[in-house]
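With this grant's support, the team has encoded backbone shapes as discrete tokens. A representative record is reproduced below.
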Amino acid sequence: MAPKLLHCMARLLALGLSRIGSAGVVPRQMEQVRFRVSEVIADSLHNAYLEFGDPGFQGEVHLLYGDCDIFSSSQKDHDIGKIFVGRGAHPERFVWATPLDAPHLHCLHAFSGSTLVGTSTPVSVAVPLVRRENIADVADAMGPWFDGVAYMQAKEPGKAVVAQAKDASVAIVGGGMSGLMTSLLLESVGMHNWHIIESSGRVGGRIRTKYLNNTHPDQYQYQEMGPMRFPVSTTYADKNETLEIQGHKMVFQLSDVLNKLNTDYPELAINFIPFVQKIPNVPASSGGYRLPNGLIPTVADVADNPSLVYISASFNATAAVDAAQAYEEYTTANNISRQIIANMYQAHKFAVDSGYFHWPEAGYLRYALGYNDNITDYVAGSDDSLIWDSLYEGGLESLPRAFWPHVANRTTLNRKIEGLSFNETSGKIAVNRREDVMQLDSEREEYDYAVVSAPFSKVRLWDMPQYSSLLSRAISTMNYAQSCKISLHFKKRFWEYQDQPIFGGCGSVDLPGIGSVCYPSFNINATGPGVVLASYISGTPARSIAALSTEDHVALVLRSMVQIHGNIATEQYTDEFPLYASYDRQCWKVDEHQAGAWAAPLIGQQDLYFPAYYQTEFKTIFIGEHTSYTHAWIFSALDSAIRGTTQLLLDLGLVDEAKSIVNTWMGRWIKV
């Protein structure tokens, strides 16, 4: 056959095939939707951005990922979701929960009905990166670790499309450290429509620095009636090893951020000073033994002469020693305290696996080791705190003070909340209040979301939506520890000039109702007045102390100072100035804004309730130290704010912003 004829036949065949195939080709309007997406990582969340070529475009859009040359939505690798796009209300981005098996260099597609209205350029899909903390190393088998990928995958298709999300209104209920941190985080990612609602006349929550005798911070006449310190490191004598405490680094990072924000307010600068925890000359718990001069021996006295400590005889001394040793081995066998310092989240997993959330000391001795009630009570007493919580202690007024210029115009103080209610029609959550306590009908103000940082000890008294059973039980039953403090103001820092001078430090005494006595670690060797934290007691005794009148409590503590230091304590006490406070008393059980010192979950509560905090119900997200892995510490509150803000941003589809917060603020346990 002639070459020319062959050429013609080939063209006819090609034309015929193209016409035959055209019946199965989906119509294309390629410029209706344009995609913008950078490299993605498999098994993580990403924002992909949309642009609409036609401002009047409307209708349902089906988003999917598949081969770049597909001609039907059925050929997809996986669905992303379906959304209805209104005229003039075009979404700007959507959330793509990229699966672990997402193919490399395939494309995003948008279909309107059977018409392909947009295809992206090929998308580079990388394998998952090694994280700063591998979630698999710390994740609990029961799942109480915030996994943003799973969180978004559980949402209904189409719920992950973003339209004007940054304009969402957010009520931050509670102006403690977690609430303040939430405002800072939202502001940092361009969300400005938030408002803090605080029941008291100040922000800062349980941070309570009290300045006695009408003094100012730079006069150093204060004590911390709430959290007291931020541990930096600890040293283990057995290995001569000093470890940095990782968790508290978040507090120092926050301080750096606030100092940069407040360069125009030098008086708000946050500066840290050393906190002296231990010193030889502080009083010791001597079991009732007193020195010949009638005073309580010091730690140094006891170290020189152990017989100064009276130990009551046990009916079975051998069994008591064995029980104490068994408990010591249980809590130290795997160096749990070292784990906590190096990696809080791995330590939490170990604590769950080891049963630290299921045993108080007494319970472990009685039911795990089989010691009888008498031995158990002799060794451990009746304290029901979980072993995990006993490994922690828990501030600085300068922290909340540094926030104030940035939150003042969006904060309402002295507003007590009566509850929250959900509007099914508007899809908003209302914050309810009464200006007059006798007012029958509450006033309501609606928001797109409520982030509640108030403690459950107060929230349980509110009228609330019908939350899930688990969350409702967490709110109504979460246990709180109690503590009481008394600080006393003295004319001179006499304790620094006695025969055994005391320069900072805390000592425990055996006097009923006193607990620990802490001396100021600042302004040492000053010649003027000073303030001693003359009593810090927690647990069951604090409940009894809280029932005392203020007068009786102060008198009890002043008498104890006489037993520690002699009559100079009463001579130097500044009670002759009735116009000013010569003492301060803080009992958290009767604090109207807190009703508890810190969360202390009972057996089973810690691991049981965590999953409930990681679900947004009725547009409500709960944060605060009571929703964190650890309790009492300020960093626990900050940690919860990072989780809660990330949760809110994912609800709004703002994945890039959520990632920014996680990466900036050491949210090592959050997977996005």
Q: What stands out?
A: The chain has 20 helices and 29 strands. Residues 320 and 378 are 7 Å apart (CA to CA). The mean pLDDT is 80.
